């Protein structure tokens, strides 16, 4: 598995770095419910910060993000439902949705305390197919990871998008930061 660092347009090879990674899937991941939808990537080589390659902070402690907080989500996924992926990095601002409201809107689909919601119905925008694993960034911190939306509908989303809430996994993340050379995650 490899990652591409420093690219904003993946059709252009300049100024980007391809690096091999090892990965570690959270042991409690449930593919049916998408509970605990998180994976750590460990670079196999050291990568230096550049104008194009920068670090992003993780939350310092477990905390919920306040509803209506404006955040951004980015990725190279499709721009519309069932569309093709984009070669250019796309970014959109979305508002955090209260978890209880999100659960009420989703009905029978459990929105657990390890998930958070943003965008979708109220913003009429959010992530799309191909954006999975991308960051939800609020005030310069990576607080969420793109997980799922309703029926892959990203053109006219009628429910909030769901993210894995990173702060809920800090003990697991810290275990690997402190025991390995996951230097790209260090704050």
Structure description:
With 187 residues, the protein is mainly beta. It is built from two helices and nine strands; from the N terminus they run βββββαββββα. The protein has helices at 99-106, 170-179, and strands at residues 2-5, 17-25, 39-43, 70-75, 90-97, 115-118, 135-138, 141-148, 161-165. The strands form two sheets. It has a six-stranded antiparallel beta barrel with strand order 4-5-6-9-8-7. A three-stranded antiparallel β-sheet has the order 1-2-3, with no helix packed on it. The chain is globular and about 45 Å long. The two termini are 24 Å apart.
Summary tags:
187 residues, mainly beta, six-stranded antiparallel barrel, protease, disulfide bond
Structural Rg:
16 Å
Q: What would you call the structural class?
A: mainly beta
Low-confidence stretches: 181-187
Large-scale geometry: globular
Order of helices and strands: EEEEEHEEEEH
Q: Tell me the distance between the termini.
A: 24 Å
Record field, number of beta strands: 9
Strand order of the largest sheet: 4-5-6-9-8-7
Portion of residues within helices: under 10%
Mean pLDDT: 88
In DSSP terms (H or I, runs of 4 or more residues), the helix count works out at 2
Give me a quick take on this structure:
With 187 residues, the protein is mainly beta.
Topology:
Blueprint: E1 2-5, E2 17-25, E3 39-43, E4 70-75, E5 90-97, H1 99-106, E6 115-118, E7 135-138, E8 141-148, E9 161-165, H2 170-179
Antiparallel strand pairs: 1-2, 2-3, 4-5, 4-7, 5-6, 6-9, 7-8, 8-9
GO biological process, one term: proteolysis
InterPro entries: Peptidase_S1_PA (IPR009003), Peptidase_S1_PA_chymotrypsin (IPR043504), Peptidase_S1A (IPR001314), Trypsin_dom (IPR001254)
Domain Peptidase S1: 1-178
């Amino acid at each position: 598995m490899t990652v591409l660092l420093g690219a904003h347009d993946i059709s252009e090879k300049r100024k980007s770095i391809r690096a091999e990674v090892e990965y570690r899937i959270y042991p409690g991941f449930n593919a049916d419910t998408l509970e605990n939808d998180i994976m750590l990537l460990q670079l196999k080589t050291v990568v230096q910060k550049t104008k194009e390659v920068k670090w992003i902070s993780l939350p310092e402690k477990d905390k919920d993000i306040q509803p209506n907080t404006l955040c951004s989500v980015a990725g190279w996924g499709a721009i519309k439902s069932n569309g093709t992926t984009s070669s250019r990095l796309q970014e959109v601002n979305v508002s955090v949705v209260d978890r209880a409201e999100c659960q009420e809107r989703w009905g029978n689909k459990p929105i657990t305390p390890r998930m958070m919601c943003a965008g979708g119905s109220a913003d009429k925008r959010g992530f799309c197919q191909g954006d999975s694993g991308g960051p939800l960034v609020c005030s310069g911190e990576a607080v969420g990871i793109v997980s799922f939306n309703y029926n892959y509908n990203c053109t006219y989303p009628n429910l909030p998008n769901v993210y894995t809430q990173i702060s809920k996994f800090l003990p697991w993340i810290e275990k690997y930061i402190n025991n390995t050379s996951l230097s790209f995650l260090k704050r």
